[in-house]
Amino acid sequence: LHFLRGDKAKAKEAIDKQLAAAGNHPVAVEQLLELLAQMQDWETLVSVAARTAPKEVPTEEKSRRAMVPPRTPRTYFLVGVAQYRTGKRKEALASFDRYVELDPDPLNSHLRVSEAIRRAEPASQDKKVTLDDSLAYAERTMNVAQDSPMPYLRRAELRLAQGDKVGAMADFEVYLERGDYNQPEGISAFCR
What we know:
The protein is an all-alpha fold. It has helices spanning 2-5, 8-22, 26-38, 42-51, 73-85, 89-102, 106-120, 127-144, 150-162, 165-178, 184-191.
């Protein structure tokens, strides 16, 4: 509520209380980051993510105190989105890579990252760089799920956005040949 009212000082205080109460628990951190993402407060999300990042404990101290719990795959995704939107491209790509490494569904995780990057359009980056980054994840999806038609539809959309109509049509034809017609929104987006 403090964010909605524009009271950043009280919002920061509420976040600090919530983090203290949660004890850096991965699910609680993920939920807080999810809320910040819904509110599109990317700067605060990056700040909270930095404060709650897992820390390595020196080997001799591991037996004396517990490690900070690791992040969930979704947390890496949310952090990557916030980093990308705030112009921290290299950090974002590292967060996205960690997300796809940890996520149990490699096809959808790669496609999710590709779509998140495409939609991010950070003001500090060239649109071509954003499309290239998104295209890279779409192409990595093809390596992970070679039989799936969905990466071809995603790559067709991205190639079309880049102005590569020939490449887009070639990918769209592969998508149609493979017979996945359960994505009407993708087909209609491509046809526009």
